[in-house]
Specification:
heterodimer; B: 6-stranded mixed beta sheet; 5-stranded antiparallel beta sheet
Chain lengths: 114, 109
C-alpha cells in the first residue's frame, strides 16, 4: 500500500452508535497519531501512540479510545457518537518527531454524526 | 488555545512572492513545521526549522526566530497550484505538534 491508509473515506452515523475508524501504515513508523480538523481550528490531537503497545491522550481525548496492538494499525473508536464529533479525522505516522522527522498523513475520514 | 497564530486568508498574484507569518508562545519548543493542505486533501510536509535562520527548498523558504517566537513561509514565483492552506505547527516539550488554524492562500491570475 506504500504509505498510510484510512477507512472509511466518509460515514454518516446516527448519534449513540459505535464507530471505529481504521488506520494502517506500511512505513514501519513507531509513532502514530489521530487528529480531528474542524473549520477555523487547527488540527487537534486526540490520541497518540509512540510505539506498539502504548497509547497516550492528546488535547481532545474525551469520547474516543484507541489501541495499538501492532506497529501497522491504530484504530480510533467512538463508543457512543455525538453530533459534536462531526469532523474530518486524520491519522498520521512518524519515524520520530523528536528527531525532526515529519508526520505523514492519511487521506482522512469525513464523519457526520446526526 | 495553544498560542499559535497565523493569518486566516491571504491573496497573491501568479508569479509574485508571498510571505505567510506564524507567531507562537510556548515555554517548551522543539522545532517548527510548515505543511501544505489542498482543499479536501491531507496535509503534506513542506519544511522543518529547529535553529534560527532561513531554510531554502526550491521556490519555498522557511524562516525561524526562536527568541521572537516567529516563523514565516516564503513562496516565490507563485503558481496557481500553490492555492492551498498553509499550516504552521510547533513541537512542544512533549514532542507533540501544536497546530495553527491555517492560512488559506488564494492565487489570482
Amino acid at each position: 500500500i506504500a504509505g498510510i491508509t484510512q477507512a472509511p473515506t466518509s460515514q454518516i452515523l446516527a448519534a449513540g452508535r459505535r464507530m471505529t475508524l481504521r488506520c494502517t501504515q506500511d512505513m514501519r513508523h513507531n509513532a502514530m497519531y489521530w487528529y480531528r480538523q474542524d473549520l477555523g481550528l487547527g488540527l487537534r490531537l486526540i490520541h497518540y501512540s509512540n510505539t506498539a503497545g502504548t497509547t497516550g491522550k492528546g488535547e481532545v481525548p474525551d469520547g474516543y479510545s484507541v489501541s495499538r496492538a501492532n506497529t501497522d494499525d491504530f484504530p480510533l473508536t467512538l463508543a457512543s457518537a455525538v453530533p459534536s464529533q462531526t469532523s474530518v479525522y486524520f491519522c498520521a505516522s512518524s519515524d520520530g518527531l523528536d528527531r525532526g522527522h515529519e508526520q505523514f498523513f492519511g487521506p482522512g475520514t469525513r464523519l457526520t454524526v446526526l | 488555545g495553544q498560542n499559535i497564530d497565523q493569518p486566516t486568508e491571504m491573496t497573491a498574484t501568479e508569479g509574485a512572492i508571498v510571505q505567510i507569518n506564524c507567531t507562537y508562545q510556548t515555554s517548551g519548543f522543539n522545532g517548527l513545521f510548515w505543511y501544505q493542505q489542498h482543499a479536501g486533501e491531507a496535509p503534506t510536509f513542506l519544511s522543518y526549522n529547529v535553529l534560527d535562520g532561513l531554510e531554502e527548498k526550491g521556490r519555498f523558504s522557511s524562516f525561524l526566530s526562536r527568541s521572537k517566537g516567529y516563523s514565516y513561509l516564503l513562496l516565490k514565483e507563485l503558481q496557481m497550484k500553490d492555492s492551498a492552506s498553509y499550516l504552521c505547527a510547533y513541537l512542544n516539550s512533549n514532542y507533540q505538534l501544536i497546530w495553527g488554524a491555517g492560512t488559506k492562500l488564494i492565487i489570482k491570475p
